[in-house]
Design goal:
heterodimer, A: mainly beta, seven-stranded mixed β-sheet, four-stranded antiparallel β-sheet, 0% helix, B: 114 residues, mainly beta, 12 strands, globular
Chain lengths: 114, 114
């Protein structure tokens, strides 16, 4: 099993619908992140969480919300999806005790809003 | 605040030719440097990292990068590329000021021409 698992892998949804993207990890890491990737724009941080009770907005949090249900689970919700939220979404984790060691990424969720 | 610049959005190169992907960052105080690779339709994988010690770091598949503090650069090089190296490459930096969060470059697509 992958260290960081994202579900679903692909999703097509309609404008206005609520959708949740899920992320779970077996790394035992405290820190978790949600990014979106758009062609030519690289990775942009949506939300991050340094532990279960610590959730922070990233640079593009408008239109998104998150829930850290447990150390291992971090979900991203689009309350009312719009077409410009069509993107590739990645979850990542890092270790609080070795924060300079970089991140571990999931395989991504490709979301299309029609 | 830290920033990362990858000047080239795409780098086309013939198979078996050498390649250099450039990465510059803004602040040189105690940084940690990373290159991630994203193969088509996959997530990001750590390629190599500089934490301390030798300024030249190597990956298992023949890439190397050199930390140059005076030029605030961490360019990625490979002496002979293969078609399997086709991917997008992301440079990232972290430091204590960013609480060890990764600051990302926009990515460089390596295009291998047969």
């Amino acid at each position: 099993d992958a260290d960081v698992t994202q579900t679903p892998r692909n999703r097509i949804t309609k404008t206005g619908k609520r959708i949740m993207l899920e992320c779970s990890q077996t790394k035992g890491h405290d820190r978790m992140y949600w990014y979106r990737q758009d062609p030519g724009l690289g990775l942009r941080l949506i939300y991050y969480s340094f532990d279960v009770k610590d959730i922070n907005k990233g640079e593009i949090s408008d239109g998104y919300s998150v829930s850290r249900q447990a150390q291992a689970k971090f979900s991203l919700s689009l309350e009312s999806a719009i077409p410009n939220q069509t993107a590739l979404y990645f979850c990542a984790t890092s270790d609080r005790d070795s924060p300079n060691y970089g991140y571990t990424f999931g395989s991504g969720t490709r979301l299309t809003v029609v | 605040a830290q920033s990362v610049t990858q000047l080239d959005s795409q780098v086309p190169v013939f198979e078996e030719a050498p390649v250099e992907l450039r990465c510059n960052y803004s602040s040189s105080v105690s940084v940690y440097l990373f290159w991630y690779v994203q193969y088509p339709n996959q997530g990001l994988q750590l390629l190599l990292k500089y934490l301390s010690g030798s300024t030249l770091v190597e990956s298992i598949n023949g890439f190397e990068a050199e930390f140059n503090k005076s030029q605030t650069s961490f360019h990625l090089r490979k002496p002979s590329v293969h078609i399997s190296d086709t991917a997008e490459y992301f440079c990232a930096v972290s430091d204590r000021d960013s609480n060890y969060q990764l600051i990302w470059g926009a990515g460089t697509k390596l295009i291998i021409k047969p």
